Amino acid sequence: MIELKNVSMLFNPGTVNENLAISNINLKVKEGDFITVIGSNGAGKSTLFNLIAGTLIPTEGSISVNDRIVTREPEFKRARYIGRIFQNPLLGTASNMSLEDNMMITYRKGFKWLKRSLNHKMREYFRTELVQLKMGLEERMKENLAMFSGGQRQALTLLMMVLSRPDLILLDEHTAALDPKNAQIVLELTNKFIKEYRLTSMMITHNMSHAIEFGNRLLMMDKGEIIFDAEGEAKKALTVEKLIEKFHEIRHKSFENDRTLLSDE
Predict the structure, then answer these.
(1) Which terminus has fewer CB within 10 Å in the chain: N or C?
(2) CA dihedral in degrees (80, 183, 216, 238; nearest 10)?
(3) At CA 36, angle to CA 34 and CA 37, rounded to 5?
(4) What does 218-260 look like in DSSP terms, one character per residue?
(5) In this structure, what DSSP letter does residue 28 have?
(6) Each residue of 227-251: pLDDT tens digit?
(7) Which pLDDT tens digit goes with each residue over 198-209?
(8) Strand-strand pairing, 217-222 and 34-39
């Protein structure tokens, strides 16, 4: 479904700040994959997502979606078929607009015909979908999202993205800024939606236990490279300890002062 061939990303070439953030990555994402991505700070995880989403154009290599080359296609065009949720729960919704208007814009993928399309039938559809969040938001559809908590907005962002039926969703540490209770709620909803809607998904997480528990495939990154790729039964057999051992085996070093990566809480 999605393929990266010999993709590299070099920032500030020829300067003292030159940084090879992504180094000759080859990756195939199959339809229906739920891939968790782990790695220490600076491993290149978010840069990889930026390349897939079109936020960045690679220095070298090509990116294709469904056998169509999209390497230089801008982000706003890829947003039609790639959904993304960031760590900041405020980025996925418009604070000064109502819940129902936010849902309609995402559902229609733009502002065109917003008021004309938002009829009784659509409101009932949105109300039904909101019920599954179990947050009572179906009774607050006319409220502006500035009145909602971070956890509510992140759960809503997730639901809206799912309803827009993207070909791929990118989850960039989307629970990291939430309190533990809301983080668990959003993570459980994520797993539920991905399974029910059979979504192709990639999720960055610093929690190794979550990386092992969720999804059918796990990627470990270090210094801009994918150093380990496990799926199916091989992934099911993983433990936090085995992942740490695998890193030692491949890189011949320990995780340096990266407590979040080692966390299994």
Answers:
(1) C
(2) 150
(3) 140
(4) EEEEETTEEEEEEEHHHHHT--HHHHHHHHHHHHSS---S-HH
(5) E
(6) 999 999 999 999 999 999 999 889 8
(7) 999 999 998 999
(8) parallel
Task: Give residues with Cβ within 8 angstroms of 233, minimum separation 6.
Answer: none
Q: Shortest CA distance to 21 belongs to which of 46, 54, 52?
A: 46
Do 28 and 87 meet the contact criterion of CB atoms below 8 Å apart?
no
Tell me how far apart the alpha carbons of residues 27 and 13 are, in angstroms, rounded to a whole number.
Answer: 24
Look at strands 60-65 and 2-11 and give their pairing. antiparallel
Name the helix (H) or strand (E) containing 12: none
Average pLDDT of span 125-142: 94
For the chain, what is the largest distance between any 2 Cα atoms, rounded to a whole number of angstroms?
61
Kindly state the helix (H) or strand (E) to which residue 210 belongs, with its residue range.
helix 208-213
Cα(221)–Cα(219) distance, rounded to whole angstroms?
6
Domain ranges in the chain? 1-81+166-265, 89-164
- The conformational region for residue 33 under phi > 0 = left, psi -120 to 50 = alpha, else beta, is beta
1-81+166-265, superfamily in CATH?
P-loop containing nucleotide triphosphate hydrolases (3.40.50.300)
The predicted structure's pLDDT at residue 170: 97
